[in-house]
Amino acid sequence: MSSSVLVTGGAGYIGSITVERLANAGCRVVVLDDLSKGHRAAVAEGVPLVVGSVGDVELVSRVLREHAVDSVIHFAAMSLVGESMERPAEYYDNNVVAGSKLLEAMAAAGVEKIVFSSSAGVYGEPESVPIRESHPAKPVNVYGDTKLVFERILEWRSEASGLRYISLRYFNAAGASENFGEDHRPESHLIPIALQVAAGTRPELVVFGDDYDTPDGTCIRDYIDVRDLCDAHIAALDALDRGQKGIYNLGNGEGWSVVNVIDSAESVTGKQIRRRMGERREGDPARLVASSSLAEKELGWRPAHPELGDMIEAAWKWMLRCPEGYPE
Ligand code: UFG
């Protein structure tokens, strides 16, 4: 495995748990995060945190050299679909332009390996499920497009230089590790919202549409345990060392509806979750389910925690432990 890794966005939800797991695996890790969304307290103890932008070429190349980094895992990005439609310029600046600067800094410091945090959002409205990597990528929102554009930059730069990349297209990350969890402000994701209602810190959950073409009328998503997702990054670093490159879906291969998630959260917490049927949210595909068979075959990765209830239970335990989220 890589001996020294820079994790951009390592103070965020998926980044923080990846850092924790890398450190536990004996890897040297340094985090770069501007703390616009991330939390200082989400960086595992003993791991250096550099507060700054991935677009700062001078800073990033210095950090890469000083920490003798040989691989980068790039999480830092803006990641809210709705917000991306309202503030497209910021999304392209942060997710594409700053990302491209990161590649410039890597080239300057002679770092060739990168694992990129991409998204199922690149596919847009699926033509068929489960979704394979060969499915057409036609994003229906700015966020998904920024991820696709950056993947294309990676591909063309890898053709032109020594860059070696693996892009991981996540479906819906869920759950927590023992120490780190999901703390978005404001929170927009289904599972933490359901748990906040269960905990009594939010009055109700609005279900965004129950007239979709699915068995119970609510949207179906492929929830993947965040610990499994993070382990896929470690598998991807190993794969890069073996000379592999490319794009991989990360999901469970199973879908759960919004109602399934709320019911499961009720049974895990033993609390009633007050729900109200509301309007559809713009840009929500009815059904997003991954085929992760390529990751299984080529990265040797498969989810170790495939049960929805286990993911929700891990998220609930973390919420009970940190009811206010991370301290600011
Ligand atoms: N939902 C509700 N009520 C809520 C919140 C969510 O009904 O209060 C529904 C949504 O409409 C959707 C499902 O619950 O059907 C899951 O919604 P999330 O917001 O938790 O997640 P998304 O599927 O919208 O988005 C996630 C990531 C994105 C990524 C996308 C790609 O957050 O970054 O998956 O699949 F782009």
- CATH 4th-level superfamily of the domain at 4-173 and 224-251: NAD(P)-binding Rossmann-like Domain
| Overall pLDDT level | 96
Beta fraction: 15-25%
Shape: globular
Query: What percent of the residues sit in helical stretches (DSSP H or I)?
Result: 25-40%
* Number of DSSP-assigned strands: 14
Low-pLDDT ranges: none
Overall CATH architecture of the domain at 4-173 and 224-251:
3-Layer(aba) Sandwich
- Spatial order of the strands in the main sheet? 3-2-1-4-5-6-11
Q: What's the CATH topology name of the domain at 4-173 and 224-251? A: Rossmann fold
- The topology string of helices and strands comes to EHEEHEHHEHEEHEEEHEEHEEHH
Ends distance: 34 Å
Q: Name the ligand types.
A: uridine-5'-diphosphate-4-deoxy-4-fluoro-alpha-D-galactose
What is the number of helical segments per DSSP (H or I, 4+ residues)?
10
Structural class: alpha/beta
Largest sheet: 7 strands, parallel
CA-based gyration radius? 19 Å
Outline the fold blueprint.
Layout: E1 4-8, H1 13-24, E2 28-33, E3 49-51, H2 57-66, E4 71-74, H3 81-86, H4 88-109, E5 113-119, H5 142-160, E6 164-170, E7 172-174, H6 190-199, E8 205-208, E9 220-221, E10 223-225, H7 226-241, E11 246-250, E12 256-257, H8 258-269, E13 275-278, E14 287-288, H9 293-299, H10 308-321
Parallel strand pairs: 1-2, 1-4, 2-3, 4-5, 5-6, 6-11, 7-10, 8-13, 9-14
Antiparallel strand pairs: 9-12
Bound molecules: uridine-5'-diphosphate-4-deoxy-4-fluoro-alpha-D-galactose (UFG).
Uridine-5'-diphosphate-4-deoxy-4-fluoro-alpha-D-galactose is lined by residues 79, 81, 119-121, 143, 171-172, 188-190, 193, 205-208, 219, 221, 258, 281, 284, 288.
